[in-house]
Design goal:
- The structure holds two protein chains of two kinds.
- By secondary structure, chain A is an alpha/beta fold.
- Chain A folds into two domains: 275 residues, no CATH class; 51 residues, no CATH class.
- Chain A contains ten helices and 21 strands.
- In chain A, the strands form two sheets. In chain A, strands 1, 4, 5, 7, 8, 10, 12, 14, 16, 18 and 20 form an eleven-stranded mixed sheet that branches. A ten-stranded mixed sheet of chain A has the order 3-2-6-9-11-13-15-17-19-21, covered by helices on one side.
- In chain A, β2 and β3 form a beta hairpin.
- In chain A, α3 crosses α7 and α8 packs across α9.
- The model of chain A has no long low-confidence stretch (mean pLDDT 91).
- Helices cover 25% and strands 35% of the residues of chain B.
- Chain B has one domain.
- Chain B is globular.
- The N terminus of chain B is likely disordered.
- Classes of the chains: A alpha/beta, B alpha/beta.
Chain lengths: 434, 478
């Protein structure tokens, strides 16, 4: 047993969650991987899962997760390969991770993209730990700490300097759950784009049955690199999805992200977008569609370090039945980050009497020559607009769908890659039919 | 050629003077005995002493609120005096009997009581340190049936009213500062407007911290019965000091059916010097409840003083169709820290709230808007509109916005918008090429920035507030 587990400050309830990490001890791993696991486990053992009174966690109740019994397994379970969903776009290349484990035999990377399992990369790729080891805030990020304790699964995607990858690249996280012994998954991933390179990623999260997936992703963009990252979070209805993404952008790089969230019973996507140099463009937008008793949380920090940065956080969502949505955004503009242009917007549409929406759109600004604005709004479908459409012979249900679609359209417009935008539009229409 | 901000920002605190008046003071420190002493000095009934002691015991174990974006060394509660009363043998019957030095103090502040009595038609219950020394316009108010007196007087004369409402909106368990106030409050104001009465004049109290190291623990309680209306003005200035002075006031407002309470504040306490030394700690708990249907509570504040401001005037909108409003200008300079905002709790149907907050930061200061809008499940058709704008002057300061928005009712409509900007070079250029000096231009632009809030002030205060804003920021061009 590790030394920290005997310490007094350890929270007993955390121990079952760390138990399986000992299986990893027998596996060969680089020294830094071992150290990371230890630090992560130690941090988590001392903090446990966040308390509802903790800042940033008031609105997302974790009981559904903490009451569950989830276990980590070294091997992914057997599953039917034919059950894998088809790639979203015909011309894309795709890699597959099953229960967090990279499956080269099912994968195929586009030209110019190097894909390796995390463990292979940890010994073969020079300088990789710099991007995978960010332990500074582990004490404040329990999910990230828990993921670190299980550093083993996952994938590293690198693009060489100057490579312009035109073929869309799909990364499929396929999760196989189980009702008896629900798996806990802890993949750790890295997208590393060299100087002046470009890539378009479609990241899909889907699966069957009950499971808990807790992902840590690093995105490193070197000077002038350009990444488009389109996410579809369509986990199974009984799954819990937590992801923590650290985006680090260097000079003149650009990031365009969109996250579409409809899956899972309990999910949270947390982003820390660090704009560490000047002239950076960072755009993260998204849409959430929630029903039944789903709870979804977007927590986004955009941190401007240097001048002339431009950032956008636009999120819109519809909340039906007894579902709950949470958006916590923050734009942090440091002293040196003059001429920053930050924009934050969140709108939620409530479709049912029991639906709930909570927001915390924050600004923290230390530079005077900046333009920062945020807006948040919550309401229901406009009765007058509905009446107008109905009076022109459109049935009520259809009119409602039409209005919801048009409501979401303004964020979809931020997706510059049209084949993916069309996929999102189809997905939204399909959701509205149910 | 723009003027260097440093030369313009070092404007001295204009109300910084100390009046030497002997005072009757309890020993330093806080203990059960002090609480008993305060109660005894005020000839209080048993129930109030019991309440004070209950609060004091609760206070001992209560943690200090830590969530605000302010930093200061730990407060030594034992290093302050909790009771000080100006030495006046008997209560003055008219202004002539009031200590001339006191009157002089008011004159320096620009609020001579006499003049106000004659010209402005404002009744003033002036609080000098902790005991009210002069009250005017009693009779006119008495004719209307309005009770406007110090809280100690109210305890003696209207015990059943005080007992019923005191602590009903802000219980002593609310937070550490409110709890301390519940234990050691020395004086304050009680206002009671009977059913159907429109208070014939604006009520006003000028607070003034004078005695060195005397914490101020004012308690204000305003009850507006069915269909009544009252506008209450509160203004504060304090002399220059080196030690930090703790001020933990509590204000409770209760509006019954169809009643309206308008509460306006100009706060200009000593903010500390250019290096952040000294200044008042202003930890205030202000809360109003719209109990009855169609009632309305409106908070307006202009905050320019204090080293630290921690203040969230709130509205509990319980009655159907009730309305809550919050208009605020918070201005910080040098090393001031302000964490202020509001809470709008929508409980009743068709409740409406409006929040307009303007934050201006200069020097090394930090200015935070922190607000909560909560729509409960049964608050059908609730509406909220929030706008918080920040203006940064200079590049050493910070402006922050931390809104919490919770909606549990689909028919509710919430809108929140915020922006951060600086005084535009083009705006300045425009003013200057029309012959307006740099200082005048900045005052004009900042006053324009705050206009929506200043407009809400009653006349008497609007002028003072505009002057304050202009003085505090004169020409501070970043």
């Amino acid at each position: 047993m590790n030394a920290f587990l005997q310490q007094e400050a350890v929270i007993d309830a955390t121990l079952p969650w760390l138990e399986d990490a000992q299986k990893l001890g027998e596996q060969p791993a680089a020294d830094w991987v071992k150290a990371l696991r230890h630090t992560g486990a130690e941090a988590f053992a001392h903090t446990g899962f966040p308390h509802p009174k903790q800042e940033g966690w008031q609105y997302t109740q974790l009981r559904q997760l903490t009451d569950g019994d989830f276990h980590y397994a070294l091997e992914a379970p057997a599953f039917d390969v034919n059950a894998l969903p088809q790639p979203l776009l015909e011309n894309s290349a795709r890699i597959v991770l099953v229960n967090g484990k990279y499956r080269p035999e099912l994968s195929d990377a586009p030209e110019g993209v190097i894909v390796m399992s995390l463990m292979d990369a940890s010994v073969q790729v020079e300088g990789i730990e710099e991007h995978l080891v960010t332990v500074g805030d582990l004490g404040k990020a329990p999910f990230k700490a828990l993921n670190a304790a299980y550093t083993h699964d996952g994938v590293v995607v690198t693009v060489k300097a100057g490579a312009e990858v035109t073929q869309p690249f799909e990364v499929l996280f396929y999760n196989v759950g189980d009702t008896d012994k629900a798996p806990a998954l802890y993949p750790r991933c890295l997208y590393w784009l060299g100087k002046n390179s470009s890539l378009t990623v479609i990241e899909r999260h889907t699966g069957t049955g009950a499971y808990f997936t807790n992902i840590y992703a690093g995105i490193a963009l070197e000077p002038s690199a350009r990444l488009k990252c389109y996410k579809l979070e369509e986990e199974s209805a009984t799954a819990c999805h937590f992801s923590y993404t650290t985006l680090q952008q260097q000079k003149d790089s650009s990031f365009e992200g969109f996250s579409y969230a409809t899956g899972g019973k309990l999910s949270r996507q947390e982003y820390r977008n660090l704009l560490i140099d000047s002239g950076i463009s960072s755009k993260l937008t998204g849409a959430y569609l929630l029903k039944d008793q789903q709870c979804h949380d977007f927590t986004v920090l955009t941190d401007h370090f240097e001048p002339d940065g431009k950032s956008v956080q636009h999120f819109k969502g519809v909340v039906d039945d007894q579902a709950r949505s949470v958006f916590q955004g923050k734009i942090h503009v440091r002293r040196a980050a003059q001429k920053t242009d930050g924009n934050q917007l969140n709108h939620a549409l409530l479709l049912s009497e029991k639906a709930e929406a909570s927001f915390k759109p924050e600004l923290e600004i230390y530079a005077d020559d900046v333009k920062c604005a945020h807006g948040a709004a919550s309401g229901q479908i406009d009765d007058e607009a509905l009446f107008y459409l109905q009076s022109r012979g459109i049935p009520q249900a259809e009119a409602r769908s039409l209005l919801i679609e048009s409501f979401l359209n303004t964020v979809l417009a931020e997706v510059s890659f049209s084949p993916v935008r069309e996929v999102y539009e189809e997905r939204i229409r399909a959701w509205l039919r149910h | 050629m723009p003027i260097a901000p440093e030369t313009l920002l070092d404007k001295k605190y204009e109300a910084g003077f100390v009046t030497e008046i002997e005072s009757d003071r309890a020993p330093k420190g806080l203990s059960e005995d002090i609480v008993r002493l305060i109660s005894a000095k005020k000839d209080e009934p048993e129930w109030l002493l019991a309440q004070r002691l209950k609060a004091y015991k609760h206070w001992l174990d209560m943690p200090e609120p830590r969530w605000a974006k302010v930093s200061f060394p730990p407060i030594d509660y034992q290093d302050a005096y909790y009771y000080a009363a100006p030495k006046t043998a008997t209560k003055p019957k008219s202004l002539d009997e009031v200590d001339p030095k006191l009157l002089e103090t008011y004159k320096k502040l620009g609020i001579p009581l006499r003049e106000q009595e004659m010209l402005a038609g404002v009744a003033v219950d002036a609080v000098f340190d902790s005991v009210s020394v002069a009250t005017t316009f009693r009779e006119k108010l008495a004719d209307a049936g309005v009770i406007f007196c110090s809280i100690s007087e109210a305890v003696r004369k209207y015990p059943e009213l005080v007992q019923k409402y005191l602590g009903s909106v802000v219980p002593y368990t609310d937070n550490k500062h409110a709890c301390l106030n519940a234990a050691v409050f020395t004086d304050g104001t009680f206002v009671y407007i009977p059913e159907g009465v429109r208070c014939p004049m604006e009520l006003s109290t000028y607070f003034r911290i004078n005695e060195a190291k005397t914490g101020q623990f004012e308690r204000t309680l305003i009850v507006a019965e069915k269909g009544s209306y009252v506008s209450y003005l509160e203004g504060c200035t304090a002399p220059m000091r080196d030690e930090n002075q703790l001020h933990a006031a509590v204000v409770e407002l209760i509006a019954m059916e169809d009643a309206e309470i308008k509460y306006s504040t100009v706060q200009n306490w000593y903010p500390g010097d250019e290096n952040g030394k000294g200044g008042i700690y202003n930890f205030v708990t202000k809360r109003g409840i719209c109990k009855g249907a169609r009632s309305k509570i409106s908070w307006t504040q202009v905050e320019t003083g204090s080293a630290i401001t921690w203040k969230y005037p709130s509205c509990i909108l319980q009655g159907d169709d009730s309305v809550g409003e919050f208009y605020s200008v918070a201005l910080t300079n040098n090393y001031q820290q302000a964490d202020t905002g509001t809470k709008m709790i929508h409980i009743g149907k068709n409740t409406k709230s409006r929040i307009i907050s303007k934050g201006i930061s200069a020097g090394h200061s930090n200015n935070t808007y922190r607000g909560l809008v909560r729509i409960s499940g049964r608050a059908e058709n609730a509406r909220n509109f929030t706008q918080c704008d920040s203006l940064l002057i200079g590049h050493e300061c910070g402006a922050h916005t931390v809104p919490y928005i919770e909606n549990k009712n689909m028919s509710a409509m919430l809108e929140h918008e915020a922006s951060t900007s600086k005084i535009g070079e083009d705006q300045l250029f425009y003013c200057r090429q029309r012959g307006i000096g740099e200082e005048g231009a900045v005052a004009l632009i900042v006053n324009g920035f705050c206009r929506e809030v200043l407009q809400q002030m009653p006349m008497e205060f609007a002028v003072e507030a505009q002057k304050l804003v202009a003085i505090s920021l004169e020409g501070a061009v970043g």
